[in-house]
From TrEMBL:
<protein>
    <recommendedName>
        <fullName>Fungal-type protein kinase domain-containing protein</fullName>
    </recommendedName>
</protein>
<feature type="domain" description="Fungal-type protein kinase">
    <location>
        <begin position="398"/>
        <end position="523"/>
    </location>
</feature>
<dbReference type="InterPro" id="IPR040976">
    <property type="entry name" value="Pkinase_fungal"/>
</dbReference>
<dbReference type="InterPro" id="IPR011009">
    <property type="entry name" value="Kinase-like_dom_sf"/>
</dbReference>
<feature type="domain" description="Fungal-type protein kinase">
    <location>
        <begin position="185"/>
        <end position="367"/>
    </location>
</feature>
<dbReference type="Pfam" id="PF17667">
    <property type="entry name" value="Pkinase_fungal"/>
</dbReference>
<feature type="region of interest" description="Disordered">
    <location>
        <begin position="636"/>
        <end position="707"/>
    </location>
</feature>
Length: 737
């Protein structure tokens, strides 16, 4: 059998028949077998990968700056000889004079990657060479009865857009390895990414393109633990290894002089188990459904809730999951945790078990490889301890935490009243965590304040999640408990200004300050409930933009330097009109958290949780009182009461679209009456206020029978949204004539 070839000029040629050589890649007795590898795969076509810019300029620069050169990472680490049933050197000897000339140290059929106005012939010639070499290696494995992948893998030509470190987007042809037989290759199918250039001087740009491709691979493949990219520039070859600690580069090798290195890489990617080329085999698929086992129990992955975009870091993925023995929704957090950080998030969550408003830990365990070793990034340092710069490489371990309850994002608040309740609950949970367990959260953000459905309650409540950055605090004589963080932790737009300045001593006042910033960003970003985005608005182009870049001076000037009038004007320039009635709350929070002075000591009075909770409670009660008054005064007009401060005529117009219930003829107006609200021991705001019924009808005379009891009109809170809705009820009577 012969291999179909195309050289760099597009001219077809037919190399020598592999069955006529001493390699015996196709033995005579099995020439009639039509299965791979004894027969070639179908001709590959050009595949256009979708344009998804998961890497921005900052992320690209971060990868470049933290990249390390580890010369032996491929042949001594990733793809060492012990991983192969037949070593790469043996394969080259078997293929002498077929693919490689041992005497001349030269690949016989490797295309010249010359510069050309039309690049397509170069990429196609290269994939033909790669596919033929892969098929020859697989045939040798098959003839010697060594295991091969269940599904053959094939090199294909791709067209994609990449982001460079200067922020430019470039469209480029490349090569990808994927399972054979796919009608269309997507980023989710890419097993290896190859980028090509004509000369060795282009190698730096090729590496940048590989980094951009790696970001797409990590985002598209939730079971991806690491990724390998191949750079071919002229006759030079370099391997880029990506994991959550960043990028590690092999040395640069001449593809002809170091043929074993090249063969090792191609054989590993096409023959070895996928767990050895970066895939997480603990996530299994059955009938189109995904399953993962944690703590000996199998969970079905129902939905992906969130994913981290950057390559470096924790790489957090959150799934909504269910067990076959339960209807309860669980959240599984798949995270690369810092191995050198103690206590771990799982240990902190175990300490916090039972605190209302904090996620409950069900299980926490390390993810293991098929050989039983933990999945981590420390193996590079363990194996190449003498390499310069490796000591600063992150030591991360893949862990899975099963949590409950399942919660929804903060942006899905159903009303401003619910939004305030959620914030209040998060502050209260933060306080309990700090006071009872000596734990300081240190990463208050819009992603870590969630909305949960409370059992037995008609209203949703707040949930504080993610203790990745949390620290333990200790008593400080005469002051609030404090702790130390060795590095700047948190989410940049919401960090306290002195944390941005580099303050390592952390106290609760820093997190309380972060709560203000989260609320301000929400009020600037949305135009209503249920994740309603603000139209024609870009947060990066508004006065809050410097905060997104961590401008501590700008933040301090506004939050500390502006007087009340100037700060109110600043809020006017930032907030969406829907949130106009929350500006007083933000002003009061700023006053309590940042602008209260201890007159005796003539210094800033650091806030405590009680101070902040009292502000929320006062505004929540005021809004409830205003809502009742609005319901009473607007009944005469026949309109629903204004809820959430909706003064926008367009919103009122939409709300008037419903059909009002018809009142019974016997109903007459009466004075309003509000059921009292009880306060719990831990909070001035309690669940007793979840439902308030205000009656507006008075019977003309006493009812003589139960059947004669008259209907009255009233307003009742919706269990779904918390809004007042108009209804008719039969008045209860406890006497009969």
């Amino acid at each position: 059998m012969s291999f179909h070839k195309v050289d760099c000029r597009g001219a077809e040629y037919t190399p020598c028949d592999a069955s006529n050589t001493k390699s015996c890649t196709c033995a005579d007795e099995i020439k009639s077998d039509s299965r791979y590898p004894y027969s070639p795969l179908s001709s590959p076509i050009l595949h256009t990968l979708p344009t998804r810019h998961h890497m921005d300029k900052d992320s690209a620069l971060d990868v470049e700056k933290t990249s390390l050169l580890v010369p032996g990472i491929v042949h001594h680490g990733l793809f060492s000889n012990d991983k192969f049933a037949i070593t790469p050197r043996t394969i080259l000897i078997e293929l002498d004079q077929v693919f490689y000339d041992l005497g001349r140290r030269m690949w016989l059929q490797y295309p010249t990657l010359c510069a050309s106005p039309v690049h397509t012939p170069r990429e196609y010639a290269l994939i033909n060479f790669l596919n033929d070499f892969t098929r020859a290696c697989c045939t040798i494995y098959a003839n010697k009865a060594h295991p091969l992948p269940v599904c053959a893998r094939q090199w294909v030509v791709t067209d994609s857009t990449r982001i460079l470190s200067n922020g430019d987007a470039v469209s480029t042809l490349g090569i990808a390895l994927a399972d054979a037989g796919l009608s269309g290759v997507q980023w989710s199918d890419v097993l290896c990414d190859v980028q090509v250039a004509s000369t060795a001087t282009d190698m730096p740009e090729v590496m940048q393109r590989l980094s951009s491709g790696a970001a797409n691979v990590f985002m598209a493949q939730e079971d991806r633990m690491s990724h390998v990219g191949i750079a071919l520039a002229g006759d030079d070859l370099q391997i880029a290894y990506f994991d959550r600690a960043g990028r590690a580069l092999s040395g640069v090798y001449n593809i002809h002089e170091h043929a074993v290195f090249f063969a090792r890489t191609i054989m590993a990617l096409t023959i070895l188990d996928k767990s050895l080329i970066g895939k997480d085999m603990s996530i299994v698929s059955r009938d189109g459904r995904r399953f993962v086992t944690v703590g000996g129990l199998e969970y079905e992955i129902v939905e992906t809730l969130s994913m981290t975009k950057s390559i470096r870091g924790r790489g957090t993925i959150c799934w909504r999951c269910r067990r076959s023995d339960s209807d309860e929704d669980f959240v599984i957090k798949n995270v690369w945790a810092d191995m050198r950080r103690t206590p771990s998030e799982g240990e902190l969550l175990s300490e916090a078990r039972g605190i209302a408003g904090i996620a409950d830990l069900v299980c926490d365990e390390a993810v293991l490889r098929p050989d039983g070793r933990p999945c981590n990034t420390a193996w590079v340092l363990d194996m190449f301890a003498g390499v310069d710069g490796l000591s600063g490489r992150s030591h991360l371990e893949l862990r899975r935490l099963v949590l409950r309850p399942y919660a929804r994002p903060l942006a899905e608040f159903s009303s401003k009243d619910e939004l305030l309740r959620v914030f209040r609950d998060a502050v209260a949970a933060h306080g309990d965590l700090y006071e009872r367990e000596d734990i300081l959260h240190c990463d208050i953000s819009d992603n870590n304040i969630m909305i949960r459905q409370q059992a037995g309650s008609k209203f949703r409540r707040g949930l504080l999640i993610d203790l990745d950055c949390a620290i333990k605090v200790t008593d400080v004589p005469g002051k609030l408990k404090q702790g130390y963080s060795a590095r700047r932790t948190g989410t940049i737009p919401y960090m306290a200004y002195d944390v941005l300045w580099g303050c390592v001593r952390r106290g609760p006042w820093h997190d309380l300050e972060s709560f203000i910033y989260v609320l301000m960003v929400v009020c600037a970003s949305y135009s209503g409930p249920s994740n309603t985005p603000r139209k024609n608005f870009d947060l990066r182009a508004c006065p809050l933009a410097p905060w997104l870049e961590g401008d501590a001076n700008h933040k301090c000037r506004i939050m500390m330097g502006f007087d009340d009038v100037a700060f109110r004007t600043f809020l006017d320039s930032v907030f969406d009109p829907y949130f106009d009635d929350l500006k007083d709350l933000v002003c009061d929070l700023r006053a309590v958290i940042l602008r209260t002075t201890n007159e005796e000591l003539d210094e800033r009075q650091l806030p405590c949780h009680t101070d902040v909770l009292s502000v929320f409670d006062r505004h929540i009660r005021a809004r409830q009182a205003a809502l009742v008054i609005s319901a009473n005064t607007q009944l005469e007009t026949g309109r629903s009461p204004s809820v959430d401060g909706d003064n926008d005529p367009e919103r009122r117009k939409r709300k008037r679209g419903g059909v009002r219930p018809k009142a019974p003829d016997t109903a007459k107006p009466r004075a309003s009456r509000t059921r009292g609200k009880a306060a719990s021991s831990s909070s001035e705001y309690s669940d007793d206020s979840e439902r308030t019924l205000v009656a507006h009808g008075r019977p003309a005379k006493k009812a003589k029978t139960v059947a004669d009891a008259e209907n009255v009109v009233g307003w009742e809170r919706s269990p779904d949204t918390g809004r007042l809705i108009r209804c008719w009820r039969r008045r209860k009577v406890d006497h009969l004539a």
